[in-house]
Each structure stands twice: as structure tokens, then as C-alpha cells.
Design brief:
By secondary structure, the protein is an alpha/beta fold. It has one domain: Vaccinia Virus protein VP39 (Rossmann fold), CATH 3.40.50. Helix content is 27%, strand content 27%. The chain is built from six helices and nine strands. The strands form two sheets. Strands 5-4-3-6-7-8-9 form a seven-stranded mixed beta sheet, covered by helices on one side. It has a two-stranded antiparallel sheet with strand order 1-2. The chain is globular.
């Protein structure tokens, strides 16, 4: 399979056609080999216009997915990432979004709750020389306070609520990008910290797969 041609087709047919115009975001999707972050048997499906499963449900854990390219690109564009940004990615999976973020941001902390996925992410990111990404493991809803504060927190999947613990790890002026809610009613939102207050703005509907560990997250009180 010609993965490079499939990658170009993904950008032209799935991403550009959904109002993604950021050159840095488009170039990141053109540069990062999506096939490097999916299981061997799923490599022919790496560029389909859909989510790609990277881990099956097991031992009470829900399945995990690489997010469909179009909503992922729209969310990254919404994040308005610069090379000055220190980013916390919540729900790194096998590291695909981490690799995209590595091209857009100055430094990335990629947080993953599954040890197996985290190990796969470390290996794939090392092969691609994503030296500005640090993979850590831990509870997703708790974030990674050790490296806080962050300019951007990017939640790589849908959550029912954005917990106060994550918002507290933003620096003053920092923003958090998340898809809040499940199914077709879910909405892409940006939360911005201004000292000890937080504003919230909704932008577009996005139906993406949920992340584990957020079902009982407490609502932040503004």
C-alpha cells in the first residue's frame, strides 16, 4: 500500500474539505505517518475516514481509538498552537496526536493511563525522533501536575465533564480544548484561564470516541 499517497488523499479529501486552513496543522498531518501508530493488522485502514481501533475492550476497560482525522484536525486548529506552547495531551494512546503536537508546539507531555499503549507510544515517537515529547502514565482526569502549568491542555477524546484538576494545571492565559459530551450532541469547547476564573466557549459539534476515567468527573464551578 502506498501510505504516502493515502496520507495526501486524507489531507485533501478529509481535512481540507472541513474548513481546516491552518498551514501548520495541514503540514503536520502530511508529515506524520498515521500507519506507524496502529496495530499491524490495521495498517491498511490507517487512512480511512473513521476512527481506528488501537486497543480492544478487555478486563473491564473500554476500547481505544485513533480519532478520525477531520475532527482531530479541526480541534488542533481550534487550539491555535505555537512553538512557544508547552502542551499536556490527555489520552495519548499510541502517540499519533503526540507526534502531530510535536510539530506544532515547543514541548509536549503525553499522558496515557494504559501502560501497554504508553510503551507503544514511546517506541513509535522515538522512531520518528519526536524528541520534544515526554510520555508519562497516570490517571487521565488527574492530569500531570509535576510538569504544570501548561499553555494548552488538549484532551484527545470525548469527556462528560472537564474536571477542575485539569483546569487548575493551566497557566494564566492558558487554554484547554476538549470535546464535551457523547454522541452527536457533543461539542468542541475551549476553556481559558484568567487568573482564578475560567471562561468557556463552544465552537462546533464533534462526535468522537470517549476517553476512560471521566464518567464521574466533577464539574468545575465557575
Amino acid at each position: 500500500m502506498d501510505f504516502e499517497a493515502a496520507r495526501v488523499k486524507m489531507v485533501e479529501n478529509q481535512i481540507r474539505t472541513t474548513d481546516v486552513t491552518s498551514h501548520s496543522v495541514l503540514n503536520a498531518f502530511l508529515s506524520v505517518p498515521r500507519e506507524a501508530f496502529v496495530p499491524e493488522k490495521s495498517k491498511p485502514l490507517a487512512y480511512i475516514d473513521n476512527d481506528v481501533q488501537i486497543a480492544a475492550a478487555a478486563d473491564g476497560r473500554q476500547p481505544r481509538y485513533l480519532m478520525e482525522a477531520s475532527p482531530l484536525a479541526k480541534l488542533l486548529q481550534l487550539a491555535a498552537i505555537t512553538k512557544d506552547d508547552v502542551v499536556l495531551e490527555v489520552g495519548a494512546g499510541t502517540g499519533y496526536t503526540s507526534a502531530l503536537l510535536s510539530q506544532l508546539a515547543g514541548a509536549v507531555v503525553a499522558l496515557e493511563c494504559d501502560d501497554v499503549l504508553a510503551a507503544q507510544a514511546k517506541e513509535a515517537l522515538a522512531r520518528l525522533n519526536c524528541a520534544n515529547v515526554t510520555v508519562v502514565t497516570g490517571n487521565l482526569a488527574q492530569g500531570h501536575a509535576a510538569a504544570a502549568p501548561y499553555d494548552l491542555i488538549f484532551i484527545d477524546g470525548a469527556v462528560k465533564e472537564v474536571p477542575a484538576t485539569l483546569l487548575s494545571q493551566l497557566r494564566d492565559g492558558g487554554r484547554l480544548v476538549a470535546v464535551q459530551g457523547y454522541g452527536n450532541a457533543a461539542c468542541a469547547k475551549v476553556f481559558v484561564r484568567e487568573r482564578d476564573t475560567f471562561s468557556e466557549n463552544a465552537f462546533f459539534n464533534a462526535s468522537v470516541k470517549p476517553l476512560p476515567g471521566f464518567a464521574k468527573a466533577r464539574e468545575f464551578v465557575f
